[in-house]
Amino acid sequence: MQLQTKEFGTNFKDGFRGGVATYHYVANNSALFRKLCSAAPTIVVFDEVHHCGDEAHFGRGITEAFELARERLLLSGTAWRTDGTPIPFVKYDANGYAIADFAYDYPRALNEEVVRYVAFDYSRGSITNDATGETTTLSSETSDEQASWALGRLLDPRGMFVREQIKMAHAHLVSLRASGVRGAAAIAACVDQPHAVEVARVIREVTGCDPSIIVSDSALENDTVREFRGSDKEWLVSVRKVSEGTDIKRLQVLCWLTNTTSELFFRQLVGRVSRYTGGDDRQAMVFLPADPRLVACAKNIEAAQVRALKEQFAHDSVDRELDQRDPAPASFSTSHDGTELLVVGSESLAGDHAEKVRQVSADCGLPMQKVMEVLQRYGAVQSCTSGTVPESKEEIMDGLRERCNKVAFRLSKLLKTDVKNVHMRFKPQAEMTEDELRRKLASLIEEGRRHA
Fold it and tell me: Is pTM, for the whole model, over 0.85?
């Protein structure tokens, strides 16, 4: 089907069956598109329709332009507006929640291996008035009003907080790449374009890497999304240009250096590092200031991950029953006060314990995503009629060990313990027979079902 993109008239040009236009163009030419919809039965597809509010220019424009359309398909990954205004053509219930004809939520995406699990690291920070010596600390217990003041100053690239956040994010990125996750990359989300330029300078000083700067000002940009996606560069610095819709799956570490704290923006930005590509890159890592507003947004994602864990164990149990064979300004200075809370799946680690977990991960060469394999749906040996049974005993054994590892990890998250503590109940898997591996798998699934 040929789609027209310019020079629209009262009907489509010869040889074209439809068109593609921006919301801005439609809003400024609503009468023209209204005439097109009245000329013949028309379906209109709205991409990321949350950009249009009923009272906003875009919203009024698309309402006038497309209310005569025969069918309307509205798509959105974040189906609400931060300002709370309704979205044109969306139905709402009595509580103001959008009513979807079809919904695909985060827990389902986790269990179907569409997205990565996300771990959050919250860091405290202090702002000291260099003239008076007065110090203010940003933590998860800070009031929202105080947090807003503190966050803006804490993100000054001249302070130590930004440098330490970048150091932590880069250390995690290095461990990912060392573990075999080829091409893994980090993104620093900045306040505005001048801030992005300064953050890029700090990244060069701290890491020795030359980051890509991708913003809307071509004079400041030194790269493009397409070029960065296909490169092996470690760092990307951006403001909002990469916050929504951009698909760079190798982004796996997010360093949050922006003062935007709305949940809509939070989900969009975290989404840049959560796109799963397959293999060993199952976990994304987000380094956040311990701002209470950001912590609240992260806890909503954490709750969805716990739900996915429980749903996965419920699915495991059903499978076993079906087949028993498959058992700041210049006058202020900032400091980085260490990790306040490390959230991995459903497990929250604080203070020294969080640092210990990080150190063990580094010492053993096992990035957290190696033990966070919670996405893969459990399935034991398939029935002989499926045509996918492993052909050799070695393949069967390898498959059982892999499934034991995945179920053990999910169980460790529900029990809030290290996955090694789960495996220690059994003898080493390398020494197990096939029957012993099957019994271990069945035992892990049953315990997970009880705790789910």
Answer: no
